[in-house]
Structure formats: structure tokens, C-alpha cells
Amino acid sequence: MLRTTTIQNVLSGRRAVQITIVAVSALWASSNLALAQVPDVEKHYTGQTIQFVVGAAADSSYMKYARFIGRHMVKYIPGNPSMSFKSMPGASSRKAAKWMYNSAKKDGLTIAAIRPGVIMEPLVGNAKDLDYDPKNFKYLGSAASSVFVCIARKDAPATSFSETLIRRMVMGASRFGGASRDTALALMQLTGAKFKLVQNYKSVGQAAQGLEHSEVHGICGLSWSTFRTERADLLKQKKINILVQFAPVGDPVLNKMGVPMVWDFVRTPDEKAAMELLVASQEFGRPYIAPPRVPRKQVIALRIAFERTMKDIDFRADVRKSNLPVSPTLGDDVQRLVTKLYKAPPRIVAKAKAAFKG
Q1: 57 touches 81 (CB < 8 A)
Q2: Strand order in the sheet with 240-246
């Protein structure tokens, strides 16, 4: 449970969303189903191909999710269009976000998977010339929430997060920013962790190799769901310690392992509120968007198709085989949460922004 009330209503999404999916989803879908399936929507999609842009590498978990979702989502879109996929990596999904905002056609025939940090960057980040406004994207939903973790080698100076408050740790990060940098900076500024950040790596994957080669002591901002599947060897061989969970709510497996939450270490009410704002985007850890100004009928059709895909038995079987977690958030809920986050008190926004600046 989150510890402050400053923006607690903003961050109550996960519990509310779980209730929404069970109790409100049917009502929402039924009230919009007729609109989504009117003849002109079906005609619009008949014989068309939807381009699914992924703001990450072709071999990433983002692309895996996209292919599973796209494969099943077309069954629920009026007119039964086909789906093509395009990888557009760059600047932690900022390249894809800019392209979706400024260049993609606004006709409902282009959707995208982006990293959640892209949504929060204009609010709390420090990048310049972003040239997009996340509030204006049309959110189709999120396939899963995310929990970030910090890990460290077994022989690192600190074996627990409490020890990072008194012992200096060299942490690896991507030179292009993103969660590996931002998470470490937030922990340095808002908990007092004694990290020395080394941004010599082209990617988080390279930083992980640096950890294995003893170039750095640890890494922060790793997605737990991705890490436990793609780097399961480090866990099985007990080469690392998991120091802390960076998320609104802890992962059940990590909770059982006794990995502490970041809330155990933030110090003042304003710091807690700033931290809540920084972790909020993990409520929609796998977001999917359409460009701004897509007609409402197409947006509704895509949102309903996404919701039905999340419940599809075959889709669930596919992601289960690939060890990809699914904890969906509906498009309307993501849209509302993003809007609320951008209305956070200026004092808290300034503190959060300063934390990411380092």
C-alpha cells in the first residue's frame, strides 16, 4: 500500500483496475460495442493491414508481447484486418513515440507498444525537444504492470539495500538513459543510496554483461518479469542479490523472498510523494497506444479488441508458455491515470524532476 495521500488517488489504479476488469468491463464493452461494430467501422478495417510499431528491439520482450497480442487482437476487430509488425528502437521508445505523435496516420491503422517511461518523460524527465504530449495519445490498454528491481553481485560492497545507504556501489546504466539510469538517480536523491552511476553501456543488456565481468557492482531499473525469464541463469546460480523493489506494489514472488519495497527507505512526506509520481507509470507497464486524433469509433473498436484479447484463452496460453505475465489495465483506465498524473502538484513534480536530474 502506498504511504502518502498527496497523490494517492492518482496511484490507486491497480486495485481499482482489478475491480474494473471484473465488475465494470462488461458494462463498458456493451455500451460501446454497437458503436465499435457499426458498418462504417467494419468497412474501414475490411481488407486493411494494421501496422503494429514496437518501440524496442526486434528480439525484445516488447516485441514478443506485441506479436502475441496482434495475432489474437485481429479476431476481435470488425472487418478482420491483418497485422504487420515493425521494430522501431531508439532512445528508450522516444523515437517511436515521436513518430506516432507526428508522422503516423490518424486513421486507426497504426498502433504502437512503447515503454512506460516515455509517457512520464515530459512531466518528470529532462530530455529536450520531445515534440509529443502523452496526454493526447489514445491508450488502448496495458498488458501488465511492472516491478523494477536493483540487483548486485554477491561480492559487491552492499548485500542489501540498507547497506547501500552507507557503502558506495558502482551501478551500471545505459548511456541513453531510461530506467537503468532514472531508477538509480531516484534512489540516490530520495533515499540517500550511495551509488556511483557509470553510463558506459549501449543497453541494459550490455550493463548486465558488465556486471558479470565485474565492471560494475549492480544495476537498477530492471523489469522483474523480463529479468527472471531472460536472465534466469543469474538467479539459479545465485550470482546476485536482489536489493529492492521499485514499484507501487510489490511482486508476490519477491515479497515472499523478503525483498524490501522502496517505501521502506524514502524519508520525508514530500520525498514519498515524489517517489510515488516516479513509480506511477509502472501501473501501466506494457502500454499500447494509437496516435492522437484517431476517430472515436476506431479507438473504441481497438480498445474493445484489446480487452477481449486479454481475456482470450488462446492468448493466455501463448503468453504463459513464454513466461510473460499478464495483469491488464483497460484503455480508459490508462487514459484517466495519465491525465491525473499530469495534474500532480507542481511542488511534487519539481521534486520528482530534480531526482531524475541527479
Answers
A1: no
A2: 195-201, 169-174, 218-223, 148-153, 240-246
Helix spans in 170-283 (H) = 179-191, 204-212, 224-230, 232-236, 252-257, 269-279
- Note down pLDDT in tens along the chain; length 358 residues: 333 333 444 444 444 444 444 444 444 444 455 555 556 899 999 999 999 999 999 988 899 999 999 999 999 999 999 999 999 998 878 899 999 999 999 999 999 999 988 898 899 886 677 889 999 999 999 999 889 999 999 999 999 999 999 999 999 988 766 788 889 999 999 999 999 999 888 777 788 888 888 999 999 999 888 888 777 788 888 889 999 999 988 999 999 999 999 999 998 999 999 999 999 888 898 999 999 999 999 999 999 999 999 999 999 999 999 888 899 999 999 999 999 999 999 999 999 999 887 6
Closest CA to 8 of 353, 340, 331, 251: 340
Distances (CA, A) of 148 to 220, 242, 248, 296: 7, 10, 10, 34
Q: Please give the CATH number for the structural domain made up of 13-145+285-344.
A: 3.40.190.150
**Domain(s) of CATH 3.40.190.150: residues in the chain:** 13-145+285-344
C-alpha cell at 86: 515493425
Q: Which of 212, 257, 215, 206 is nearest to 239 (CA)?
A: 212
Task: Give the Cα-Cα-Cα angle 168, 92, 68 (nearest 5 degrees).
Answer: 120
The string of DSSP codes covering 4-28 is -SSSTTTT-HHHHHHHIIIIIHHHH
Q: Cell 488517488 sits at which residue? A: 9
> What is the CATH code of the structural domain delimited by 148-280?
3.40.190.10
**Where are the CATH 3.40.190.10 domain residues in the chain?**
148-280
Pairwise CA distance, residues 333 & 335, whole Å? 5
| Spatial separation of the C-alpha atoms in residues 258 and 261, rounded to whole Å | 9
Closest CA to 135 of 126, 123, 145, 125: 123
Provide the 10 A C-beta neighbour count for residue 164. Answer: 28
